[in-house]
Amino acid sequence: MRWRRSPAEIRYRASQESWNLKAFLFPPRPAAPVSSFTRLFPSPESLAGFLAGVPAYKSRILTEAKRIADGRVPLLGTSVPFSSANASSDWRRDLVNGQVTGTDYFRRIPYLDAARAGDHKVIWELNRHQHLVLLAQASLLDPGEPRWISVIAEQVDCWFAANPFHRGINWASALEVAFRALSWIWILHLAGDRLPASCRARLLHGLYQHGHHLAHNLSIYFAPNTHLLGEAVCLHALGCMFPQLPESAHWRALGSEWVRRSLETQVLSDGAYFEQSTYYHLYAVDLFLFHAALNPVSKEYLDRLRDMCVLLAGLTDTDGSFPLIGDDDGGRFFHPYGERRLFPRATLTTASFFFDEPSWRFQPEDYAETGLWLLGPQLPDRFPAMRPAVRHTGIFRESGFVCAGDERVHLVLAAKAFGTGSAGHSHAHALHFVLRHDGQDLLIDSGTFTYVGDLALRERFRGTAAHNTVRIDGLNQSTAVNPFRWGPERWSGSLPAESGNVSQPGRLDVTAVAKSHDGTICVTRTLRWSTGGALICEDTLAGQGQHAIEQFWHVPVDAQWDPSARLLRWARGACLKPPEGTEAEFTVSEFSGALGHRAPAGTLRLTLRSSLPVTLRAVIEF
How many domains in the chain? Predict the structure, then answer.
């Protein structure tokens, strides 16, 4: 059923489309060419000087930049051949699957139809131009290599030729316009003085047009989540970058106001981002942190942002790895390269300096990855105090996350599955938990793999059976309406008041509850563990009648089922003893560690047909 639109939304959308059509016919132009900008970040010279002392990060930048200059661009979970020599229509092509769209008015592009337009995530990721930012970084570290600047200039010129204003798929999402604009800001900041005059002029004029597009296309009603947040953050940054423009004050005020509103409406009281996705939580922390670095913000803003960092620290293991629970967007606010699960290292290290919280701090190369570019070079004597992050534990009741463990064990429970509204980036996984021991995965999340590229795989990876939880009568915990919408009849998940204790590392005693949408079935999962002991998982199902009950355990590919001993054994010596009375089936399955990438995994499915109530008790010994 179509939801009813308010008069305010109808007026906004009508105004928006009127402006878009007018701008399509008469693209916005400044009264005089935009020829200068205000630098928002630390000077390129100081950045280069600092990076000379971080050889590991410097080496990573130059190695990846060489691949890009040689025509191989990293893209989501893979890499693709791409160079300015053949890039004309390739900017609008799904380089993995081959589909390409034309330069029609952007509202006429069927970007959600993968059969006609390709996978828009693949197309848009390339058009964020973050690989060109990496080349601009390389130009600071290796100024004697001319290819860094020449490839940037060639690809920028080619992009403008292939993507006229408001024409084609690369204008179809305002968030993608924002990401591209942020990349151009960085390119101009880091390499603008060395770019050809014509390329520099195109970028400056393009940023002016991108600012106008964002100011009239904020996703206030279409996608009031990270789309709106990212667009507002970028619009504010553009207003700061061009104070000489008559539009700049409006851009700054409008962008800042929607960032503030996003913090109020998109962040729960316990600091969790409302999508019920760990990756989107990280994504939002980066955006809010960037905005705070550019702009004086209120104490309330800082307190809420700090709460977000506290949760992120709890989700993150002591080696800097975190689980991808819920949708994995595939992108990143800055530098989307490297091991995705280790991205919190850079974010938390940046936040540690911003908030002066040493327990979130990792290593100098982690600060160099993000913090250096946002906050500026720190004095070298601040780094010897850095140490591996300590274990952070906590119960986050509104979002349903529980983070527990000690120096060897890390457990994250997601009691709640679905976020607000359409829950578009949530998975059907109430009571799901993941587990690591000595920095190695024991129980894993299956990941995301795709948004629209393959609808059957989209449903498989976000379905209940893809998670370490219980499924009743073979049904997902909600019915998928489309790739970004769950139906209104959803299982609820919660952490009841006084439901547990993780007051200190080394202890876990928590109870989570999930109920069917009609309230006829209730599943209570209790987890108990203390340092040196076994982890006990009890699932008690209450309700009426007889039901088919399935309990799923997803493990790395090196785990094996031993049917003779009825044990699931991990190569690292741990084992899982499943509930008595259940039938067991161990199969080779798949998990996705990054959008667009699949790898083998193992799944133990335990089945029982029983009248309710019934209790299933599993034990994991380390």
Answer: 2
